[in-house]
Amino acid sequence: MPASPAPPTRFTIGLVQMSMSADPAANVAKAIERVNEAAARGAIVVCLPELFRTLYIAQREEHEAFNLAEPVPGPTTQALGAVAREAGIVIIAPLFERRAAGLYHNTAAVIDADGEVRGIYRKMHIPDDPAYYEKFYFTPGDLGFRAYDTRAGRIGTLVCWDQWYPEGARLTALQGANILFYPTAIGWHPAEKATFGPQQLDAWRTIQRGHAIANGCWVAAVNRVGLERLDGQGPGLEFWGHSFVADPFGVVVAEAPADEETVLTAEVDLARVEEVRRNWPFLRDRRTDAYGGIEQRFLGT
Amino acid sequence: MPASPAPPTRFTIGLVQMSMSADPAANVAKAIERVNEAAARGAIVVCLPELFRTLYIAQREEHEAFNLAEPVPGPTTQALGAVAREAGIVIIAPLFERRAAGLYHNTAAVIDADGEVRGIYRKMHIPDDPAYYEKFYFTPGDLGFRAYDTRAGRIGTLVCWDQWYPEGARLTALQGANILFYPTAIGWHPAEKATFGPQQLDAWRTIQRGHAIANGCWVAAVNRVGLERLDGQGPGLEFWGHSFVADPFGVVVAEAPADEETVLTAEVDLARVEEVRRNWPFLRDRRTDAYGGIEQRFLGT
User: Fold this and answer.
1) Per the confidence metrics, is the pTM higher than 0.95?
2) pLDDT tens, B76-100?
3) Is pLDDT at A2 greater than 60 in this prediction?
4) CATH classification of B11-279 is 3.10.180.10, yes or no?
5) Alpha-carbon gap, residue B246 to B253, rounded angstroms
6) Known catalytic residue: A50?
7) What distance in Å separates the CA atoms of residue B141 and residue B121, rounded to the nearest whole number?
8) Has B123 been annotated as catalytic?
9) Is B131 helix (H, G, I), strand (E, B) or coil?
10) How far is the alpha carbon of B289 from chain A, nearest alpha carbon, in Å?
11) Is ipTM over 0.85?
12) Which chain B residues are Cβ-neighbours of A179 within 8 angstroms?
């Protein structure tokens, strides 16, 4: 491989907000089409939604669904690797990883512009709530929080439920990631949407904007969209879209609608990281001597 | 002292958003009047703004200004202790603490309903920026992040710059604090207000709402208001008010204006802590095994 040029300081990123069908091959084909669309619009990093190859299987606990997992690296990272190499872009591909019999993860592969898997992130925080039965499927990650050097410079990825944890954002940003990607599958329970929907969406956006502010880095959240009812049964989940990019001061610079597939692009300028951190130098004053309690479960009793 | 009754689960809190003069006695008198107003409106915890006894001295570095400090406990906590006892309320009193010659802190005293200082918090994160020269005055706190059992149950206080650090919020909430108070002195540089003012205010509100969401607890931010020009010289600082209370899902339930003194009251219901944490059980899934890096300054190089 030839020596890499220095990564750019100003570039476009792409967020593929899409809906999924029950056919993994069709989902992968659609994802590739959308990734290429983002690349055609100038994006050099493109992120797909969480577990984009399938419907959101964790709506139910079904042993059959483990058949949908695959190794990472594996067939899908290979297919996307070819796309990445061809377009000269980085792709963040969230996949259902089969690591061994009975050992599965909710994983994001970072595929660099040479088509190789630069590294994988295994979702560290695993939810378990009605219709989000992830603890049944996914062993919590054992690789920790990570950043990766890519053609687009140093970036990090976390996955969905991680977005509620300031610790994950902090640890990824402290590794020098200029952008935190959050591939996601979050939606409304249809029966709750009218009452709680706006608050839930607002909390989701607010806490992630908070990560951008606390760390002075860019944040990109990439969600599914559309109502998914497994086998056409039950109320299903209405994924709320609203994929967005926040700048290092939490300003939302691009946002997709709630209910439409969208290839969202936004310009990321690393000078803004420098500017915000110079004016609001939070990293300077952290009390690293006094944070040990964070490694405890609870300190109240 | 008689055995304390169990703390209430639903009660009113008061936030005194006020402006200060160059006369400490007048500021204390005004603060007492406003505390009593909040108590008359039913508040059982009332929080004053950061360093409420004086103008915001850290606009400049002046050795003379150290004369404004006092011991904590000391004369002001004694005066406020009488108010607290009389009204049967908790008062959070942020003071310029003289601990020893050459050793000063930016401190918040938590005065319980019996008039006694239940504990003090010494500001852990100390800023230093143009017109906020706090590192000149204040030694960083050495008591860590704390929660206090009061007549209003378990509460925590942090101070101003702490509000940009998710670690401080987390460590206080993990001690069982149901409410995080943030007495504050934050404002606009008048020359910057038109260009950057709205973004700055929005970031300040957003990150604190994020602390409420991440921890499933109430957050109350209490700011100064008004333009302060020390000795009538220089551009001064325009404190932006906007004191607010956010519920455990980050919903702003009460907010003061930008430019008016206000005694803001809001009802805090601890059932909302239970409800939010039961539906969004972030504390359940924290990866305490993987957070050790937070005690490091940087992990990138």
Assistant:
1) yes
2) 999 999 999 999 999 999 999 999 9
3) no
4) no
5) 6
6) yes
7) 8
8) yes
9) coil
10) 7
11) yes
12) none
Cis peptide bond N-terminal to B127, omega within 30: no
Angle at B220 between CA A187 and CA B226, to 5 degrees: 120
pLDDT score at B197: 96
* Angstrom distance (rounded) from CA B39 to CA B27: 18
CB B45 within 8 A of CB B108: no
pLDDT mean across residues, chain B: 97
- H, E, C per residue of A105-158: EEEEEEECCCCCEEEEEECCCCCCECCECHHHHCCCCCCCCCEEEECCEEEEEC
Q: A283 at the B interface (CB within 8 A)? A: yes
What is the rounded CA–CA span in Å between residue A120 and residue A138?
15
Q: Hunting for tokens 């095994």 — which residue is that?
A: B289
CA of A213 vs chain B CAs: smallest distance (Å): 7
- Identify any residues that bridge with A150 across adjacent strands, giving them in sequence order: A153
Please give the radius of gyration of chain A, using alpha carbons only, rounded to the nearest integer: 18
Best of A124, A217, A299 to disrupt the B interface (most B CBs within 10 Å) is A299
Give the dihedral of Cα atoms B219, B220, B226, B229; nearest 10 deg: -70
Which residue type sits at A105? H
Could you give the CA distance from residue B236 to residue B65 in angstroms, rounded to a whole number?
17
A contacts of B154 (beta carbons < 8 Å): 300
How far apart are alpha carbons B163 and A256 in whole angstroms? 30
Neighbours of B3 (CB within 10 A): 4
What token pair was written down for A231? 């086998």
Query: Mean per-residue pLDDT for B41-67?
Result: 97
3-state secondary structure of A68: helix
Q: Could you report the per-residue pLDDT of B101-116, keeping only the tens digit for each?
A: 999 999 999 999 999 9
User: What tens digit of pLDDT does each residue of A62-73 get?
Assistant: 999 999 999 999
